[in-house]
Amino acid sequence: MDLRLDGKVALVTGGSRGIGKAIAKRFAQAGAAVLISSRKAESLEAAAAEIAAQSAGSSANVTWFAANAGRPEEIEACVDACLERLGSLDILVNNAATNPYMGLMLDIDVPRAEKTVQVNQLGVLLWCQQAWRSRMSEHGGAIVNMASVGGLTVEPAIGYYNVTKAAVIHMTRHLAVEMAPGVRVNAIAPGLVKTDFARALWEPAEAAIAERLPLRRLGEPDDIARAALFLASDASSWMTGQTVVVDGGATLGLRGGVG
User: Fold this and answer.
1) Domains in the chain, please, with CATH?
2) Closest-CA residue to 32 (of 209, 229, 187, 169)
3) Cβ neighbour number for residue 49 with a 10 Å cutoff
4) What percent of the chain has pLDDT over 70?
5) From the candidates 27, 101, 127, 161, which is the catalytic residue?
6) For residues 76 and 24, what is the distance between their CA atoms, to the nearest angstrom?
7) How many whole angstroms separate alpha carbon 65 and alpha carbon 79?
8) Angular region, 114: left φ>0, alpha ψ -120 to 50, beta rest
């Protein structure tokens, strides 16, 4: 199946590395004009150049805008820049996330808990609101929210992060109803993917973890990008409010049991 996004404009948050960059690359290769956003201008500039170079066959139009994904004024400025530079906003991918704390949820301090909520949970809502008000309420579109399998289960080391991802899953359902029929809202729940963001979780024991998964390997950013392309494309035109699990089978149960 050749999934295409010709004539579409996509905004991808957290787009300078990892899953976000892989999604932006897939979208550009599928014919979309893409704006990537994250906090650091230097990383964005390099990522945009890389994406454009690797998507040359699609005559890629890739630009960037530095914004903190949890600050309302910067979100508004980024959406405005997307509309000004690319003329539309048809696809929003809420990929940006933070996890400033690892440990028992009982021990998390208020500043780090607030930061986690601000970016991972409230930020997703703010981006959706801004996209709706600026463009999608009149012209329609598709939104893909990045959740996590952690929002479906329990993992003591990143419990509060997972609470925010569970909220994203439920928020996706609510927004799918509120933004229908013009805007479809779906989510992806990745398992353990080999990114810098998740390095502390996979690097110490990659081979052992992979051996216990039904598909015997950890995820790569492009595994998630291909799912995002499907959800953003017309191939999923009768889907909304859904969370697609892409985890190598981890939620089926680890081979050999947990422990």
Assistant:
1) 9-245 (3.40.50.720)
2) 229
3) 12
4) 94
5) 161
6) 20
7) 9
8) alpha
Q: How many residues belong to the chain? A: 259
160 part of the active site? no
Q: Which two tokens stand for residue 135?
A: 């463009």
The pLDDT tens digits for 219-239 are 899 999 999 999 999 999 999
Q: What is the mean pLDDT of the chain?
A: 93
Collect all residues with Cβ–Cβ distance below 8 Å to 105 and sequence separation of at least 6: 156, 159, 160, 163
Distance CA 189, CA 95 (A): 11
CA neighbor of 95 nearest in space, from 167, 166, 188:
188
Structure tokens at 37: 């956003």
Residue 100: asked if its preceding bond is cis (omega within 30°), the reply is: no
Contact 126, 6 (CB under 8 A): no
Task: Give the DSSP H/E element, type plus range, for residue 43.
Answer: helix 41-54
pLDDT of residue 259: 35
Which regions of 39-116 does DSSP assign to beta strands (E)?
Answer: 61-66, 91-94
d(C-alpha 251, C-alpha 219), whole Å: 13
Confidence (pTM): 0.93
Contact partners, residue 104, CB within 8 Å, separation at least 6: 156, 159
Pairing label, strands 91-94, 243-246: unpaired
Residue 58 CA to residue 60 CA, distance in Å, equals 5
Measured distance CA(205)–CA(58) in Å, rounded: 38
